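Hi L.,

You mentioned the student needs an example of a multi-chain input paired with its predicted structure. This one should do, with 504 residues in total across all chains.
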Amino acid sequence: MKIKNLKTKFQFFIFVLFGYLLSANNAHAMHISEGILPFNWALFWSVMAVPFVAWGLYRLKKLSSVDLSFKPLVGLMAAVVFIISCMPIPVPTAGTCSHPCGTGISGILVGPAISILVTAVALLIQALFLAHGGLSTWGADIVSMGVMGSFAGFLTFKLLRSMKINMAIAGFMAGLFADWATYFTTSVELASGIRGDSPFMPLFWKILIAFIPTQLPLGILEGAMTAGMVMLLYKKRPDLLVKMKVLKQEEVAI
Amino acid sequence: MELFSEYFKKGHILSKIDARVKLLVSLTILVMVLSYKAFVFPLLVLGLCTLLTLGMKIPLRVFLLRVSQPLFIASMIVILKFLFSGNDALFSLHIVGIKLSGHKDGLIEGLKIASRILGATSVIAVLGFSTPLTEFIAGLSWLRVPRGFIEVLMFAYRYIFVLFEDAMVIYNAQKNRLGYSNIRRGLVSFGTLAGSLVLKAFEHSHNITVSMIQRGYDGNIPMLKHKPFSLSEVFVSVLLISAMGVLWKI
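Structure written out for the whole complex:
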């Protein structure tokens, strides 16, 4: 019994080691690579993503009919998310670099619906021209980064602000949960896609735990980055935060 | 950013082909690769795509760079599947009294996934190398992708380069002032950089809207009108897809 436990522990260690290598050396492991998901799973996640992107397009149409500058702004936000998610930041425990999602901040600034659209656009350009993610995994990446990341960031920020929590802390937690929610969903997608005939749960836990060495600190770093961004906007252009309905006018006046 | 434009050389074998045709053929082959149950067909696709890339005069280094990340992930998946999946043990290693087995069925399953990754990545790499985004966008518009999505894509593509330049200026200024000399300062600097990009995005979006309104912008950007399909291109594409379909079926 003891030996069996030891064997399981050793296998688990090897698994975590490979997972660590996989996630630590690939700055873009957040995006599920082209071809990893078999056709049925690729189709499933794409179908899952469609209503969310449609919701984003509906909101875009509605908001841009009132404000002509909204569509260019959404395009530029997509460019910002693209650049942020291409920029390396140091991960101390991994001794290497990884990259943030950027969906936490876009969820806070433009809301989850538009943020999903912004992520979908950024992911498409990355898939086509940088081989980060892919066309077949586009739907899965939209669900993990766009839907889960944006909702986690937006809801966390709103919840904490409604509890009168300091804006920097709310921004930090929003970035943190946006990042972790993305990785949790990515683990579900990967485990379901590559498990073959093996049971889902053991593989899911292995992948989730394998991500911890980089994603635990990376989530904290993304939180710090999101807090920095929110505070910079608050100090330099609070009017923009009011315009984007992140803050109320009276909060700025205070 | 060099991968965006530098290697879209004109005059190669795929540059004159309609983007819609390339898109449809690529998507069809992608579906074939993803739904194939063994590893021969995806590897065949990988081989063909490598030859096409070289035919387009794209340096092999650039192609390998493009597939390097998927290649690494593919190798890891093979190792994971080999060691942790399957029942048919090929060998057993005893390390500090603990048995570690390699499984034949796990290895085969891993190789299937790895070949799928490489085949699919190479198809999209060829599509990316041979099709500038502007043409790709025109293809999406023909495929009835919603107009709002295409317009946001166009704005994003245009402003990636502008914002990237802005980001580089800010980054170099921060670096010169030791903004990345340790992790704490690096984080603060990165937060400032990302925040500044958002501010720049707001500024640019305001400026572009003003200048577009002065030129008659009413909230919609006119799309390119499509030329009719070339019969020879359609014929060659159908022939290619049929041939690939036969290989896929075998």
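You could point out the following to them. The longest strand of chain A covers residues 89-91. The radius of gyration of chain A is 19 Å.

Best wishes,
N.
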